Amino acid sequence: MDRREFLKLAAMAGAATAVGCDASGRSRGYPFQVDEEVCRGCQLCLGLCKAEAIKCDVRSTYTVIKDKCTGCGRCTHNCRYGAAKLGPDLKSSINRTKCVLCGKCFAGCPYSAIKADLVTARIDQFKCIHCGECVKLEFCPYDSIYSTYL
User: Fold this and answer.
1) Is residue 6 assigned to a domain?
2) pLDDT for 9-37, tens place per residue?
3) Which of 16, 40, 56, 100 has the lowest tally of Cβ within 10 angstroms?
4) What's the total number of domains in the chain?
């Protein structure tokens, strides 16, 4: 590599870093992100952000993952509204018309067999003050918030 190529690559790397890209030119994204595959929609992080930058998408429903359900009945015991029921196959199901989205079935399931559909936290990058508090365990017990800088 001659001097001209070296300077050209160095200039590209400097410019890419200044606009939030890595040396290959790919966007690094924002400093803090939510891993939507890990986020369980528990919303514990909402009130903890000082800048109120963490929001949750609108809830749609809770769904039982039949493969994970053992039929223990804890979700039916925790549901005060009669929405969670054990079926003849000894698997739980949730009646969407009775469900008030309180989350008691979701929180009480020891097998993570209840999924909150379309409930994921997101970070409003315009409100985020980049303090880094959101990556601490007390913000997310499932460790779904991460730093793109690490």
Assistant:
1) no
2) 565 555 444 444 444 433 355 778 888 77
3) 100
4) 1
* Degrees to nearest 5, angle at CA 140 with 136 and 145: 75
3-state secondary structure 38-107: CCCCCCCCHHHCCCCCEEECCCCEEEECCCCCCCCCHHHHHCCCCCEEECCCCCEEECCCCCCCCCHHHH
Is there a domain that residue 91 lies in? yes
Q: Is residue 40 part of a domain?
A: no
11 assigned to some structural domain: no
Per-residue CA distances from 82 to 27, 68, 73, 88 (Å) = 47, 21, 12, 16
Q: 17: which 2 tokens?
A: 């870093």
Please state the pTM of the whole predicted model.
Answer: 0.43
Domain that residue 96 falls in: 59-118
